């Protein structure tokens, strides 16, 4: 299991993580299917990263309702590749709050992803249910959008902290990318 420092150097100060850059993160998916995470430079830009995680959307939203959630995405170092950015790795082992939860996969945004991003372009942060036009029987398309602070620790580690809008108690969701 991954060990990550729990405190000290990267705590929130005035709703900002020291050394971080602000991005927009959107968690979305049908309640009964896997959750997707899209990272954008601004709410109106195209996603720079789209991940599909092997966690049901409803389960992740339930965990977020209870408290702090930490997601660790771990991949292996390959000595031949020194220039690959960690977020450009295609697949990671997925841990949610310390429990192995399958895999996370990077993918290109689909047309449906882009429709969701377009529907949410005016939303800087919030959560809700989007109207479904296809009616594929997959349940409600739920979303949660927030500001994230992106902190690059090294070429082998990068973290996204979801910032609490009221500035209290630090991040509610942390996503760690690590190459070991």
TrEMBL record:
What GO biological process terms are annotated to this protein in UniProt? hydrotropism
Q: Which Pfam families match?
A: DUF617
Q: Which domain of life is it from?
A: Eukaryota
Quote the protein name from its UniProt record. Protein MIZU-KUSSEI 1
């Amino acid at each position: 299991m991954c060990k990550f420092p729990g405190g000290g150097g990267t705590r929130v100060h005035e709703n900002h993580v020291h050394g971080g850059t602000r991005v927009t993160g959107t968690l979305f998916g049908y309640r009964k299917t896997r959750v997707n995470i899209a990272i954008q430079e601004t709410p109106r830009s195209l996603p720079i990263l789209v991940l599909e995680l092997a966690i049901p959307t409803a389960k992740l939203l339930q965990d977020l309702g209870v408290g702090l959630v930490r997601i660790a995405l771990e991949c292996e170092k390959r000595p031949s590749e020194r220039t690959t950015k960690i977020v450009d790795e295609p697949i990671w082992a997925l841990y949610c709050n310390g429990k192995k939860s399958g895999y996370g996969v990077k993918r290109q945004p689909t047309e449906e992803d882009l429709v969701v991003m377009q529907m949410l372009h005016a939303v800087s942060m919030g959560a809700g249910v989007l109207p479904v036009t296809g009616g594929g029987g997959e349940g409600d398309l739920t979303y949660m959008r927030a500001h994230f602070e992106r902190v690059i620790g090294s070429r082998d580690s990068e973290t996204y902290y979801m910032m609490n809008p009221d500035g209290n108690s630090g991040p509610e969701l942390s996503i760690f990318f690590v190459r070991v």
